[in-house]
Amino acid sequence: MEAFNEVTGRPLRVIVADDERLMRDQLCARLREVDAQIDVIAQARHGQEALEQVRDLRPDLVFLDIRMPVMTGIDAARHIAQLPTWEDAGGEGQWPGCEIVFLTAYDQYAVQAFETGVVDYLLKPAESERLALALERVRRRIEARRRASIGTEPVPTLAAHTPAMQVLLRHLAAQVTEPAPLQWIQAKVGTTIQMIPVEEVLFFVSDDKYTRVQTATQEALIRTSIKELVDVLDMQRFWQIHRSTLVNVSAIAGVQRDERGRQLVAVRGSKELLEVSRSYAGLFKGM
To answer: Is the C or the N end of the chain the one with fewer CB within 10 Å?
Structure first.
């Protein structure tokens, strides 16, 4: 069955949030296999971006990966539940809120969610049959709200707004404990191995074999990829501005555009300009 919003009569408008681009692309492809008309209106790389997109675009459904940098899917769900809906505004024409489906690679979280019955989960990578079931559940909940809204019964509360959901989110947040961010980089400088404090790193730039660690006073090489660094660094301190570049936010001196319109980040303590790829241009809105 095609996944329609029964209130508007149009295909479901969906946002997909996952910090791994491959996982986002795979889910989007599977969604279109299940329903060719489904409308993926945005993709988010972390919970904060997902929250902003939900606030601006008002989707019917958002898929949230549990573990994401900047803001986890759990915290994003908490904030989404606080966004005003037409019930809060007291009239039609407002946003009715959105359904939430969590994405996770961890079975223990899924078991907890299925037992409560207040939210749906997909284990990554999502299988087509399981995805179709999740969409059907979402469609049924939307239809139930539509029927209640035109009858005498009260409109069912969105799962994200229920006390049971809030209890579940608190429980999951306690389980999704992140390890302490990396504090030292063990890097090769010439023929010696040095311990470089992460706070002194201006940026990381990776090529096919090595990642360059740049401080104000030295350059070093490590074999750790950017993707691996994202998993262990404090991503509120470092921003990814390119698939091969992480920059220390406190070291950013400014952002400029070249003659081709590309955004270039100037870094204090370095003469090098770092290119911002299109995928990350939204970090510097208005530039």
So the answer is: N
